[in-house]
């Protein structure tokens, strides 16, 4: 018997499928899609690997087939913070189009499969395509807006509202239409400022009770994005 | 005797000057710059005015000549959070290129002068110019990266480090080369999660002592962006 999750991963393991089902890349002419497909490389990581270091420049745009790419920051005092980019999402458009060195490390989680598209090839494929550029700009803009709102909510929202908000941010990162659940751990959610694993579990429970999310096989599935937005945005 | 600040405001009160000295718009052909100049409108506000409401769509890209445009969010319980976009900066590229309704209100501060460029005219002027689009994408990407880092630092940095970080975010918002000081109040800084006005004053004092910033006529001047970055990013 084949596992449901496995089927999903098989579908998106093919670079051509990923590009053709994506909001941005599907707008490209076929020859550009084919060129990008040929430049793509599938990467498998059993253990966490440092993909790109803070202070260097991104060399790839990654599509997360399984596992996650974790934006990671360490403090001098030994603190650690992670923002995971999960299955079915891109990591990250902003790193590819910014011209400054990376501000945080990119780590793969354990059991992670990625499709890597070289940054230079991505830029060559899209830079002279106005519709595609507008679409990328739209997605990066919406991400920036969500992040702005997250900062604004820091002082005025309850922890429950902030969790709803964080789920919106994590699930809106340039995902393809094939994305279903959000694979984030309670530890991940706690690491961006919502407290301990136990506290995050309690907060998630409240969202489940309200019918806004479901937990299925350890994944968070957003039942109603509309209600989640209503809850998150005051 | 004319005030120094006033001279600066006079220079940037001319839409053509603003466009020609800007990293993005200066890349446009001259006829496009002229078209945008003709579509521009100078707006003066003596008292705070609601410019755009949450739930609607942005209609203008604003350049802040004096005062500020404040991204503002209210909670049901009466809480209020503001993120100011200050003199010499654009408010906001992300609102113009996103396709979703605004997630927060845009308010003018008191004594605010703006140059408003209609969103539709801006998009028409830039959409088929690959170099310009790449530049806009670069700036929005870098903003998104800074915001990501701000979220990552929430749990692992000291208040002093976070303040340094916030100053970097506020001063990097798509500014023109004529920008000097950062006009933000202690109240503004406190509103994004750094505590009371008094606490923010103490934190600013520490940064002044370290020679990273100066306070001149109530404005924060960044003495060394490099050292501020070093302090902020762990």
From TrEMBL, chains A, B:
Q: Which residues form the HTH crp-type domain?
A: 157-226
Select a single GO molecular function from the record's annotations and give it: DNA binding
Q: Which domain of life is it from?
A: Bacteria
Keywords of the record: DNA-binding, Transcription, Transcription regulation
Would I find Transcription among this entry's keywords? yes
Q: Name one GO cellular component term.
A: cytosol
Q: Where are the transmembrane segments?
A: none
How is this protein named in the record? Crp/Fnr family transcriptional regulator
The species is Acinetobacter colistiniresistens
């Amino acid at each position: 018997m084949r596992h449901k999750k496995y089927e999903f991963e098989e579908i998106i393991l093919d670079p051509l499928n990923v590009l053709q089902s994506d909001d941005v890349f599907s707008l490209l002419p076929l020859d550009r899609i084919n060129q990008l497909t040929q430049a793509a490389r599938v990467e498998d990581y059993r253990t966490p690997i440092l993909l790109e270091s803070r202070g260097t420049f991104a060399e790839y745009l990654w599509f997360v087939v399984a596992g996650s790419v974790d934006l990671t920051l360490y403090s001098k005092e030994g603190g650690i913070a992670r923002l995971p980019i999960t299955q079915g999402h891109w990591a990250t458009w902003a790193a590819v189009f910014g011209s400054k060195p990376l501000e945080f490390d990119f780590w793969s989680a354990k059991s992670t499969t990625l499709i890597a598209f070289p940054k230079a090839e991505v830029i060559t494929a899209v830079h002279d395509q106005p519709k595609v550029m507008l679409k990328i700009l739209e997605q990066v803009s919406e991400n920036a807006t969500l992040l702005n709102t997250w900062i604004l909510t820091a002082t005025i929202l309850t922890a429950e509202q902030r969790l709803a908000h964080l789920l919106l941010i994590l699930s809106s990162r340039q995902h393809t239409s094939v994305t279903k659940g959000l694979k984030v751990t309670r530890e991940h959610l706690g690491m961006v400022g919502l407290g301990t694993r136990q506290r995050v579990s309690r907060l998630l429970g409240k969202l489940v009770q309200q019918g806004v999310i479901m937990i299925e096989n350890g994944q968070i599935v957003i039942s109603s994005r509309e209600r989640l937005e209503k809850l998150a945005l005051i």
